Amino acid sequence: MNAAALLTDGSVVTVRELGPDDVSALLELHRGLPIEDQYLRFFSTSPRQLEDFVERMVSPDSPHHVVLGAYRDDRLLGAASYVVVRQTDFAEVALVVSHAEQVHGVGTLLLEHLASLARGRGVRRFTADVLTINGRMLRVFTSMGLVTSIVPDGEVVYVELVLEPGDHYLDVVSERESRADVASLTHVLRPTSIAVIGAGRSPDSVGHAVLRNLAEGDFAGDLYAVNPHAKSVAGVDCHTSVNELPEAPELAVLCVPAKAVPAVAEECGRRGVRALVVISSGVDAEELLNAVRAHGMRLVGPNCLGVSTSSPGVRMNATFAAHSTLPGHIGLVTQSGGIAIGVQEELRRLGLGLSNLVSTGDKLDISSNDLLMWWEHDQDTRIIALYLESFGNPRKFARVARRVAATKPVLAIRAATSEAGQRAAASHTASTATPSVTRDALFRQAGVIAVGSVPELTDAVMALSWQPLPGGRSVAVLSNAGGLGVLAADACVRQGLQMATLGEETRQALAQLVPPTASVQNPVDTTAVVDEKTFARCLDLVGADPAVDSVITVTVPTALGEPTGGVHNVEGKPVLAVRTGQTERLAGDVPCYAEPARAAAALARLVERADWLTRPREFARLNRIDLDTAKAIVAEKEGWLPPDEVMTLLTAFGLPVLGGTLTTTAEHAVAAQQAYDAPVALKAVADDLLHKSKGGGVELGVVGAAGVAEAFRAFQERFGDRLRGVFVQPMASSGRELLVGVVTDEKFGPLVVTGLGGVDTDLLDDRAAALAPLSTADADDLLHGFRTAGHVLAGANEAAVREVLLRVAELAGALPEVVELDINPLVLTDQGCVVVDARVRVAPARNIDPFLRRLRTT
Predict the structure, then answer these.
(1) What percent of the chain has pLDDT over 70?
(2) Handedness of CA 828, 833, 836, 837 (dihedral sign)
(3) Going by C-beta distance under 8 Å and a sequence separation of 6 or more, which residues neighbour residue 729?
(4) Which of 26, 151, 412, 558 has the smallest count of CB within 10 Å of its CB?
(5) Greatest extent of the chain over all pairs of C-alpha atoms, in Å
(6) What is the pLDDT of residue 59?
(7) For residues 671-688, b (16+ Cβ closer than 10 Å) or e, as one string?
């Protein structure tokens, strides 16, 4: 293990396994501790005993004894170790931290990494003996977030930690990471001094543009320029090198040629620079990141537009954009500089500004995960907008985004997802797990509002910035142009909104205001002759109707009047306006759109957010799970499991399995049929036979010994040496058929898929998908999210099907070895459901902890 990670003060340390070369550093660490910090009783033994113990700790011949250390600037700040003391799943843990570093979270970080490493090697519990006088060390253990047992015994407290990372532990780790991230990003987004390195004299150069933007934007801190060939650039005095600067700048912006970037980054690190923004493209990523990590710096880029902060205390525009950032409440992070400029300019036109703009470019270090944590705590930011072309750690992104979205809207422009699901696979489930399906499932469950373009993003931001969330999906359309009102109603329906039925009292009141030729049904057509005041009164009536959750107004100017001036806010309900050809901000902060479809789409985003905020968050607690049996089945195996093991695996997770017998001879198959004393289904188990029905590997309703023997021999003739056996099952009761599947991506984790099952699976591309783990609300989305769900579930026991989905997700999460699972069909009846056929493909699991606190390394 060798990882870079952040302490609570935002500084970077390296966590790695220690070896014989680290003995002297360990001894020096131990000898420098006051007695109250030596919480293990053996630390008070003789110096020779301590040396012997330390040497044994780091011996490569001690496979059950692991030591991790945290280094900064070649100095060991702390060490944590475990030694297996009971079988292979129980270990005693020890922890020492330099007295000067005990307030920065070194011990907690080391324990997190040690627990993750131990968990991956089969250790389930840690024990520790802490001296009662060492209250600080005791708090380190008890604040971990793991299930803890504490037993005082005289001068010693016995502590036991269960290493299973439940939701509470992951929340606690994420909160610690968030605090550390915010501290480190202060050097990037709120620096007190900046140096632009490579600030050219030519106004056409990138470095010149960045320096000019900082100078003309009146950056609140100290501004320096580095150019060995100029005395000043853009009115800023130049220095020949970073070493010649009067102080170490907190942030350095690198605009030098690509080949020079690693060396300049190294120079910055030695000088004491805390963060870099690398504008240059074509940089050697490994060399750059090595320099950044060696000196504990944070990095934006390379190949990026830059960063900006609009708050009055900073006023930083370290970009080469043509215009400065308009102050505002929107945080924007994008991999594309062009997207950043496009969003910024469109928002500027509408009078909306940014709190921060961060162009991550190649995002070697700082990513959207970091920025989400920053904006979660930033009071200047009320809305967050993202453009992501790839996910570095999507599971961590999902967890962080879900937490942030609970308090601030998070929007994302859809873009191609890089690696997820790009795997050729033959099963129905795997073919469904395309990058877009996986990405959209992640966004939906995390509460991220996904849009398809820059205009859609700005349309949604307008609505979210200026209007309240609706209380439901019902909308009223009020128009002075009947045709446009109809188009608005159609657009609302396409977006999944509902046209409200106006009450009789509302319709009568409207009829008193508008001409007889007007329509007082929804959509309401006031006709083109009404004036501004009449239109405003109509809006009051429609907005006050209890059946209406939101209103879209559509107005066009005529020779008889311009009713747009009558558009205003309605208390507690969103109002969105449409004025053909005009996207603008009306009086009272009413967003106005150029066409009905855009207004309807923006309103649908408001509804989406309102629905997500009221969505249940509970995760069901499942019983009847035999995890030990399940793990034994998948251990050290690769490929498709035989059907009898599949059924045993599913049964171990409490799934309702029909069962069956794997037979290898005709006589064995006959005996199985006779034991069931009922018609049976025979299914061939043959090499390369994934789709049994298509491949002629299924015989249904077989009765009698002769029929079974004949079917068995037919399989032998059809598949020859490929035949490995025949699975014999009793015939299942008839019912609707559902597909339930899982495909696991190394980065995104397990994706659970539902859809039409049985022989109809291939006829319709009709699926719903969600990433595990599933909340009960996620399971309901899967249950009802495909088009034919109403037909499939008609008369079915939905509670039983929901439990199957939750148990399948639990299986996928608990067994990373299961890379693909197909239940097809799951037969539904009014009494329950039963798994009739299933396939499971396994592969050795890699020990990856997506929630471990660490920074990217080469």
Answers:
(1) 93
(2) positive
(3) 658, 659, 660, 661, 680, 681, 683, 836
(4) 151
(5) 103
(6) 62
(7) ebbeeeeeebbbbbbbee
Of 133-137, 430-434, 754-758, the range with the lowest mean pLDDT is: 430-434
Q: Structure tokens of 474?
A: 């019902």
**Block residue for tokens 């950032």:** 325
pTM for this predicted structure: 0.90
**pLDDT-derived band at 148, boundaries 50, 70, 90:** confident
How far is residue 711 from each of residues 27, 675, 679, 715, 726, measured CA to CA in Å? 74, 17, 13, 6, 10
Number of H helices, E strands in the chain: 25, 40
- Least Cα distance to 451 among 611, 606, 615 occurs for 606
Q: How many residues does the chain have?
A: 858
The neighbour count for residue 19, using CB atoms within 10 Å, is: 13
Distance CA 16, CA 685 (A): 47
Residues of the chain by 3-state class (helix, strand, coil), percent to 5: 35, 25, 35
Q: Is the pLDDT of residue 360 over 60?
A: yes
Provide DSSP, 415-457. Answer: ---SSTT-----SHHHHH--HHHHHHHHHHHHTEEEESSHHHH
Nearest one of 163, 229, 159, 224 to 197, comparing CA atoms: 224
pLDDT digits (tens, 9 = 90+) for 3-31: 999 999 999 999 999 988 888 888 888 87
DSSP, residue by residue, 116-127: HHHHHTT--EEE
Evaluate whether 438 touches 751 at the Cβ level (below 8 Å): yes
Among 267, 346, 279, residue whose Cα is nearest residue 308: 279
Name which of 7, 185, 23 is nearest 103 in CA terms.
Answer: 7
Q: Starting at the earlier edge strand, list the strands of the sheet with 698-702.
A: 661-663, 723-730, 680-686, 698-702
Sign for the CA dihedral angle at 345, 348, 352, 353 comes to: positive
The answer to whether residue 51 scores a pLDDT higher than 80 is no
- Mean pLDDT over 259-268 rounds to 97
Q: What angle do CA 31, 36, 41 make, to 5 degrees?
A: 75
Tokens 């499991």 locate to 641
- Partners of residue 162 on adjacent β-strands: 125, 147
